[in-house]
Every structure is written in structure tokens, then in C-alpha cells.
Amino acid sequence: MITSLQDTTKLANGIQMPWFGLGVFKVEEGPELVNAIKFAIKQGYRSIDTAAIYENEEGVGQAIREGIKETGISREELFITSKVWNSDLGYESTIAAYDASLKKLGLDYLDLYLIHWPVEGKFKEAWRALETLYKEGRVKAIGVSNFQVHHLKELIKDAEINPMVNQVEYHPRLTQKEVQTFCKEHHIQLEAWSPLMQGQLLDHPLLQEIAKSYNKTVAQIILRWDLQNGVVTIPKSTKEQRILANANIFDFELNAEDMERINRLNDNYRVGPDPDNFDF
Hints:
Layout: E1 8-10, E2 16-18, E3 22-23, H1 31-42, E4 47-49, H2 57-71, E5 79-84, H3 91-105, E6 112-115, H4 123-135, E7 142-145, H5 149-158, E8 165-169, H6 177-185, E9 189-193, H7 205-214, H8 218-228, E10 232-233, H9 240-246, H10 256-263
Parallel strand pairs: 3-4, 4-5, 5-6, 6-7, 7-8, 8-9, 9-10
Antiparallel strand pairs: 1-2
Helix pairs in contact: 1-2, 2-3, 3-4, 7-8
Domain NADP-dependent oxidoreductase: 31-266
Protein name: Diketogulonate reductase-like aldo/keto reductase
Organism: Metabacillus niabensis
């Protein structure tokens, strides 16, 4: 059982990745972003997930530096993720994008660097760049985001190093069982973005019923369900109360029947773009 914010899963290369973290998708640069991350770090969060396209890496870096200073923890205790955007996919351009992200973040290395979307004809060269960064010791772990099974097969076919993480849209209405099974078979850790379906699941009658029986919120039930399915999760929030509540999921466990009831909600519904049909 995962029992704390500091609990980790071991990636294929032996690196320890926190099961739970803070996402900052679409959070603009400024005090709200910095304060949210610093608050999360003070409450025990150790994983922060950003991306070049979020345009907030400088603020994330500032928050990390201030959070370290104010809490006394070390950089090594944090797990920082960023992602290369579609327009930078390519060998040289991906390495340049990594350098740009590091500069904005003010860090010497990232714990995890991901290819953000599987742009056909481009992601293989980008992956070669990630392999170079990894072999040079400039990044602790490398992976992908939004890759379906056929993308993963295509990548692995020519890769020297398999992805260690695949971050995908994952929530009770989109469980991606085929992707999850493939990742498990190939020692790729699945990670959830939009685990709460951008808030659209909070009024769901079944989830409300289950939440009431555990004396928890619907969000807490979903986030616990993620972890018990072996999925790393990074809910986004800038509200202190929500950041605290999201992390209050380590004092209970969903029983097998309730896990299955939630699993059955899957109807392959996406709130984000389809990885096989996106245009950006």
C-alpha cells in the first residue's frame, strides 16, 4: 500500500519516482504559481511536472529555489519533469529545447524529460536526442507522453533505451487498458494527466456514493484509485486547500469491489486531444 507523499515507484533504470506530485498545466507565471509550488513542497510534495509549452518554467524554477531555501530540503529530494514541445522535435532541436528548459528552470539537470506528443515522422529523432542526454548523464530518466501502443512499438523497434515513463490522459472514463497492459509488460511506468477529468467527474453519482462511504471527497477517491491501479498521478491545483486535500489519500484504501465499480466507468471518453488525431 502506498502510504505517503514520499512513497516512490522504481523506474526501469532504478530511479525512484514519487507516486504523487503537482501538475502546473496552464498555470501562468507569477505569484500564484510560485506560492502554490512552495506550499506543496512545504506540505511534502516532492514531484513537480511542467512542460515547455506551459510557458511557466521560470516560475517553477523560482519556486523550487525558494522552496528548497525555506524548507532546507535538497534538490536531490525533488523530482522535476518537463517536456519537449512538438515544434522542437528533431535531434539537435530537442537537445536545444532541453538546454532552454534547464536555463529557464535554473537547474543543472531534470529528473525526467518527456516527448510531449507522438508527432509522426519526428518522435524517433527526438527520442535519439533524449537517449544522448540520458547517456551523457544530463537527465535521470527519459520517457514519452500521450503515446498509444502503436507509437510505443514504433519507438521501441529502433530505440537503444526504452521509455521509462508514459504520461497519458487517464481517469475513470478513460482507463487506456491496452496502453496500461503494454506499459506494464515493457516496464514503462504509466502516469496520469487530467486524473480528475478537469473536474467533470466530481458530480458523478457513483463516485459520490463511494466517496460518502469512505468519508472522502470524489477527488480523493479518484486519486486513490489511480494509485491502487499502479498509476503515478499529478493533479493540478493552485489552491492551498485543494493541494492539501488532494494529498490526503494515504490513510485509506479502496476495497476490490469499489475499485472494480470505478473501473467499469470507462467509456474511452477524452477531454484532451486524441493522440492519433491532433493538430498542433
